[in-house]
TrEMBL record:
Residue span(s) of domain Flagellar assembly protein T N-terminal: 23-108
Pfam families according to UniProt: FlgT_C, FlgT_M, FlgT_N
Domain Flagellar assembly protein T C-terminal: 300-370
Residue stretches making up the Flagellar assembly protein T middle domain: 113-251
Signal peptide as annotated in the record: 1-21
Swiss-Prot/TrEMBL keywords: Signal
Record carries keyword Signal: yes
Name recorded for this polypeptide: Lipoprotein
Residues passing through the membrane, by range: none
Length: 377
């Protein structure tokens, strides 16, 4: 049996690290629309709870209920062994047409949570490609690709705690993800890459009367592809579609302005970008963190991952040497037996781990790849 929570939609929330075991403190904001203060308050609380569940490593599934194309409520389902036990509302403030709440929530993750849930795997976010350039002439949205990239990067930080995200200043197409490109990106320290392309910005039927300002139904489609660079695999692929009313008045603000993102069309696009961030989290949070041996000294080895990726001093990690084989399936193969190591020194992007005896590290070499907390090998 799954735990289901019905929540209102859309807000911006800041989430801190857990205060202590299973407790999370969150600050959330939501706009007050049509004077409905209670709905805005529930929106901030609800979205914060979803982020907390993701941060706790809970697998989340959600469904949106649409009425006349507008999201009315958001049903959040946690795994059957996960539980939100208590919520404490610490403060609430009202101002600038927004509600701000701060709360604490006690969340018990699933009993058999995956080992890689709290590790931050490197992900490269390439620029959102504006494939529908002909449609962008309506409203002069030629900078929407860059603006959407910035929005998506922020949402990945908010909703994808299993990732350490860096942004590229270029776009890539799925067909360009060759073995050589994958190996080069992996050698540069990336583990996943997210490709996105805006494939539809077209106008639909006119919604205004002849005496009114021109208004149209406008569509939006975003194609998404998530690649695992080490295994040369397409992990996730999906097209997201939405629509909203569009005003022909081009003075309403360009895509890099806050005014654009507060309009109905901008809000719908932003909802899609949030959904992308949440789905990427679901497809990466149980994947093991991959590191590379950078130095070996008797019974210790150094790896090129550290506190930024979620490792902590004193952690006991299982490492397995991985080597590349030119197999027909193109996948990477395990080699050698797993070794238990304890992290004895750590910095932001590096760590030293020690073994009980030097013999356990005798088969490792500088440049070897190791898997930390992997659930897939």
């Amino acid at each position: 049996m799954k735990l289901s929570i019905v929540i209102s939609a859309c807000c911006t929330v800041l989430l801190s690290a857990p205060l202590y075991a299973n407790w999370y403190e969150m600050t959330g904001q939501a706009p007050i629309e049509q004077g409905n203060i209670n709905q805005a308050k529930q929106a901030a609380i609800s979205d914060a709870l979803e982020r907390a569940a993701l941060f706790a490593g809970v697998r989340v599934t959600s469904q949106q209920q649409l009425v006349a194309g507008i999201m009315q409520q958001h049903q959040l389902s946690l795994d059957s062994s996960s539980e939100i036990r208590e919520i404490r509302l610490l403060s609430e403030n009202y101002g600038n047409d927004r509600v701000t709440v701060t709360l604490q929530a006690e969340i018990l993750p699933q009993r058999q949570s995956c080992q890689g849930a709290m590790q931050k795997k490197p992900l490269l976010l390439t620029q959102v490609e504006l494939a529908a350039r002909r449609d962008a002439i309506h409203g002069q949205l030629f900078e929407l690709g860059q603006s959407a990239t910035s929005q998506l990067a922020r949402h990945l930080q908010d909703y994808s705690p299993a990732l350490s995200v860096s942004s590229a200043d270029y776009s890539l197409k799925p067909g360009q993800m060759t073995d050589n490109v994958n190996r080069q990106l992996f050698a540069d320290g990336q583990q996943f890459v997210l490709l996105t392309s805006i494939s539809d910005l077209s106008l639909g039927k006119r919604t205004s009367r002849f005496w009114q300002d021109d208004r149209w139904q406008r569509y939006f489609a975003l194609d998404v592809a998530l690649f695992d660079l080490f295994n040369n695999q397409l992990v996730y692929q999906q097209q997201y579609r939405t629509q909203a009313e569009w005003h022909s008045d081009t003075s309403a603000g360009s895509s890099h302005s806050q005014q654009f993102w507060q309009q109905a069309y901008g809000r719908k696009i932003d909802t899609v970008l949030k959904a992308v961030a949440k789905d990427v989290q679901q497809h990466t949070h149980c994947q093991g963190l991959l590191a590379q041996v950078s130095h070996i000294n008797q019974h210790q080895l150094a790896m090129n991952k550290g506190s930024r990726q979620g490792l902590k001093l004193g952690d006991t990690v299982t490492v397995m040497q991985i080597q590349r084989f030119a197999g027909k399936d193109g996948l990477q193969k395990l080699h050698k037996s797993p070794v238990q190591l304890k992290i004895t020194e750590i910095s932001t992007d590096n760590a030293w781990a020690s073994a009980s005896t030097p013999a356990l590290l005798s088969h490792l070499q500088i440049g070897d790849l190791i898997s930390i907390g992997s659930a897939r090998f």
